[in-house]
Batch of 4 targets.
Target 1
Amino acid sequence: MCQYWEMEPPPPGWSSEGLTLVAKEGTAVTCRTTHLTNFAILVNPSNTIFTGTEELILQIITIGGVSLSIIGLLATIIGLAVFKQIRSVLTNRVHIGLSTSLLIATFSCLSEQIRQPTRDSATSSR
């Protein structure tokens, strides 16, 4: 339940190394750590356990949404880079940089979703 985003070694991903769940009472979670970094608590508030089919549907929706985001970011970067009237403005150069950063992060999310097997495929391969 206690995890942090590990950037290295590649590929980045969630890790619980050095973390211990101390207590969970109602909505409060207490974790103990042996290091300092950015932390998050992964929560499924409804405690729903999804079937393999439901996980697959959610994964398809996620991949579809992330793909649309990538298309939008590419259109933004191309539009800002191609049109000379807006390219010379400093704020648009900043927008290109921000859009490129978001594009890289979105590709990372997409590659993680594609690489991650659903529960049914993970258990059937054992």
Target 2
Amino acid sequence: MNDDYPLPPSDSSLSSPPPPSGPHPCALCCLIFSLFAISVLVPIGMLFSSDPVYVMNPEEGLTRKEAGANAYGAAGCYVVTAGISAFYYFRDRKVGREEEY
């Protein structure tokens, strides 16, 4: 057997790292994307709801008012997602601070 390449130690120091304490990055990512989507969908809903002449009908069988209502509904779904993400982000952030002391 060749001793040029020793085997790594078999202790638990090579195991996977412990789970992170504090806010989870996925919650922050979802919160940022949700806030961006809300900031885009609300003006689109306002644009379609105001029934401007320079905006064509979005698709056959769908009026501009209905398209505005759909944009508001999608923004509402993102508000719920942002709320849940903010809850998990700030809850985990608080738990992470309590563990430090």
Target 3
Amino acid sequence: MCFTLDREAGLKEAKDVVKPFDWTFSTSYKGTLLPEAGGFEVVQTGERIDYEKLKQPEKIYFYDEVILFEDELADNGTAVLSVKIRVMASGFFILLRYFLRVDGVLVRLNDTRFYHQAGSDHVLREYSSKESKVSELRVSPALLTDPNRLNEVLTATELVVHKLVLPRNSCDDD
């Protein structure tokens, strides 16, 4: 009898501890700014990344893409978190992208972009979240696997742009 009572009490306690689980692994990560790394000043801004400038042909000194995680959601779609970096003489561009497709239900893109133009005193950080129900999208089913093209048709739900002002170098004052 004691075992049954203890077991029931344990089950009730376990149910109280369990938190909701996001089986889509969604993330709205915008990057971590470490104070010991120099202390950026974070300022909300209306300034935007100049994508036309990024489209101009230029020698790329370094490029890489790393898939941080990928899951097929138990055959119900896909969730991918990846980061791409591109370094040119004119600056650098980083894209952290979370792409979610739940088959027949919804598509979501959470992008964090960083852009630094050489010679400027700041890095622009743009975070955007876009999402649409699959039933509301009027696109070819083949398009549902291409986050770059979906980026153009999904409904924007959030946009936050920060200017990360670089600390002045004490040598700059000389």
Target 4
Amino acid sequence: EDMGLSMLSDSQNNQYILTKPRDSTMTHADHHSIRDIVTIGMLSLPCGWLCTTIGLPTMFGYVICGVLLGPSGLNSIKSIVQVETLGEFGVFFALILVGLEFSPERLRKAWKLSV
């Protein structure tokens, strides 16, 4: 179905959108991305909970979830662009979680020990 999108395909048959739809009133949803985000959310919660119950950090469960769904695991997320994008979101949220766990007092103690 041609929606007025210019597509580019590389040697591995990955497709990239070069321009946005000509008719901006027409909504366009990327169902693969939505499905992948929901899948990651549905699998990361049990993986994080399982790691917490056996005494491992929750972040370890999230990493296991990413490895399971990515190209090195079950290959559920096939598009390299989506793997990179979702990986960057994962790093972003991991940094937020690390920042939320550190209090200024704890940071000062770590600073005194390291210096």
